[in-house]
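Appendix B, record 7
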Amino acid sequence: MKPEVSRADIFASKARYFRVNRLDLVYLKFTLEAYEGLAVLSTVDREGAIVRIGYPRFSEEELDALLSALATEIEMTEVPRPDSYTDGLPVIPIRKVVEHAG
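Structure tokens (predicted):
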């Protein structure tokens, strides 16, 4: 009998955190969901508009390309994982994301 594995164990093996304009949250979530299986967005801090994007390791390159393209359309800044937030995932270095020029 195979051990039961949760969706979180299978899917979100890495995570990155972003501060996003609240008005752009729905657009960001809708866009990520359109790429089925690429990433999952969840809100970490409503007041600070910080979101967590969890993704499988194999989709990292595709996600980087999508986030770079999105950063030309919406205001988003990568931030460190908030100290108060624990998700059990390893901390990875922050990568520069092109900031919205508007």
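Remarks on this record: The beta strands are 14-20, 40-45, 50-55, 76-79. The chain has one domain: 7-79.
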